[in-house]
TrEMBL record:
EC number per UniProt: 5.4.3.8
PANTHER family: GLUTAMATE-1-SEMIALDEHYDE 2,1-AMINOMUTASE, GLUTAMATE-1-SEMIALDEHYDE 2,1-AMINOMUTASE 1, CHLOROPLASTIC-RELATED
Organism lineage string: Bacteria, Bacillati, Actinomycetota, Actinomycetes, Micrococcales
SUPFAM superfamilies, per the entry: PLP-dependent transferases (SSF53383)
Protein name in the entry: Glutamate-1-semialdehyde 2,1-aminomutase
Keyword Cytoplasm: yes
Source species of the chain: Agrococcus terreus
């Protein structure tokens, strides 16, 4: 499919992109770095499918890294976007729909009394941290090894996602002074949290945690770990930032908070959202208690701004997506996850491949090890060499998986029996390829 490029194959497009764009991609995980081969250049997406430049339709388990819970290009979302666009692409001024979106989130997620819209998850977490520092007058941030919260300086320390994929310990270009304000602890390690607070408690502004880790593969919080973090932070006058950029409105209608339901001292102080809240458009948000959120300018001293914040086309996509995300949508996603989990286990077990599937709601991934990992150290201690041949066997059979063992698999409510059937049919051969892999 040419689309004005004069080129038709993924390989040609990748070569051209590499001559114009660093590494040929605008986000590192897209480059197939850890699985090898040529990235697919996509030209269309509809329902559970994406179509590449060679006209090949693939069943998609990336779902734009999470936003597409309804399936790609849901007609009502597309219509809402077209209607909004017809009235103007961007105003740089308030619009009536912004408050409707904020109300929609506040009605679902108890700890969110006020919401500020931004454009990316990176901006949401960056702003939440600035707000926590402004509120507490402290400078240190605690984050977890292998958690990813976007690419702002202080958060690219021991991060997951593309850094895990590329085995990068951090990023160049981050001043020591900034990196030094981030304290990294192993995930699910309560003793490590207690120790870090015992040593630095009066300087810690906040703990930031993925509500369920999903950027080192899915790694679930142990028991009431999130509530424990809130209680420990609060006991030391610090805040808990629950990063729901990935889990928000995906693992349930109210995200991970909706599944755990922590309130009072156990609840997070600030929450960040992205992906689903924008329905596939660039929109993200941070929210929390009124008195904290009102420290943001223009009411308070913590500054945050954005030319495109609350963009009307993005708000239309997000609002329509959330309104369409009925309990039935979550039932369909869970059904899709059930079918894939069952078939994946069966296929890998039949080949004697050690594996563990970690899952919350419909969000899951597979690790090539006996036990589900509880930390980044454990997530890295797996037979990761089995993933590239597994991935390529699935791709050859027409199923697009995330191009890294450290990323989650994303289903949508549009994954119908036909799409699921293609995945199930592809798995036995992929499991054989995983079994045959050598380190
Ligand atoms: C948990 C989490 N937080 C933050 C981000 C950053 O969001 P964005 O890529 O929109 O900047 C991501 C994903 O990229 C994420 O998974
Ligand atoms: N793990 C990231 C999002 O959740 C992958 C998306 C990206 O960084 O391109």
């Amino acid at each position: 499919m040419d689309r004005g490029t004069g080129m038709s194959t993924n390989a040609e497009l990748f070569e051209r992109a590499k001559r114009a764009i660093p590494g040929g991609v605008n986000s590192p995980v897209r480059a197939f770095g850890s699985v090898g081969g040529t990235p697919r250049f996509l030209v269309a997406a509809k329902g559970p499918h994406v179509t590449d430049a060679e006209g090949r339709e693939l069943v998609d388990l990336v779902a734009s890294w999470g936003p597409a819970i309804l399936g790609h290009a849901h007609p009502e979302v597309v219509q809402a976007v077209q209607d909004a666009a017809a009235h103007g692409l961007s105003f740089g001024a308030s619009t009536p729909a912004e408050a409707l979106l904020a109300e929609e989130v506040e009605a679902r997620v108890g700890p969110v009394e006020r919401l500020r819209l931004v454009s990316t998850g990176t901006e949401a977490t960056m702003t939440a941290i600035r707000l926590a520092r402004g509120a507490t007058g402290r400078d240190l941030l605690v984050k977890f090894d292998g958690h990813y919260h976007g690419h702002s300086d202080g958060l690219l320390v021991a991060a997951g996602s593309g850094l895990a994929t590329l085995a990068m310990p951090g990023s160049a270009g981050i001043p020591e002074a900034v990196a030094g304000t981030t304290l990294v602890v192993p995930y699910n390690d309560r003793a490590a949290i207690e120790a870090v607070f015992a040593e630095h408690g009066d300087r810690i502004a906040a703990v930031i945690v993925e509500a369920a880790a999903a950027n080192m593969g899915v790694v679930l919080p142990d028991g009431d770990f999130n509530a424990f973090l809130a209680r420990t932070a609060h006991a030391h006058g610090a805040l808990l930032i629950s990063d729901e950029v990935l889990t928000g409105f995906r693992v349930s209608r109210a995200g991970m908070w909706g599944l755990e339901g922590w309130t009072g001292d156990d609840a997070p102080d600030l929450l960040t959202f992205g992906k689903v809240i924008g329905g596939g458009m660039p929109l993200a948000a941070l929210g929390g208690r009124r008195e904290l959120m009102e420290l943001l300018a223009p009411l308070g001293p913590v500054y945050q701004a954005g030319t495109l914040s609350g963009n009307p086309v993005a708000v239309a996509a997000g609002l329509t997506t959330l309104r369409l995300a009925t309990p039935g949508v979550y039932d369909r996603m869970e059904h899709a996850a059930d079918v894939i989990e069952g078939a994946l286990t069966e296929a890998l077990a039949a080949e004697g491949v050690a594996h563990a599937i970690s899952r919350v709601g419909s969000l899951f991934s597979v690790a090539f090890r006996e036990e589900a990992p509880r930390s980044f150290e454990e997530a890295k201690a797996q037979d990761a060499f089995r993933y590239p041949p597994f991935f390529h066997a699935m791709l050859d059979a027409g199923v697009s998986l995330p191009p890294s063992v450290f990323e989650a698999w994303f289903v949508t409510a549009a994954h119908d029996e036909a799409a699921l059937g293609r995945i199930v049919d592809a798995l036995p051969r992929a499991a054989r390829a995983a079994a045959a892999a050598t380190a």
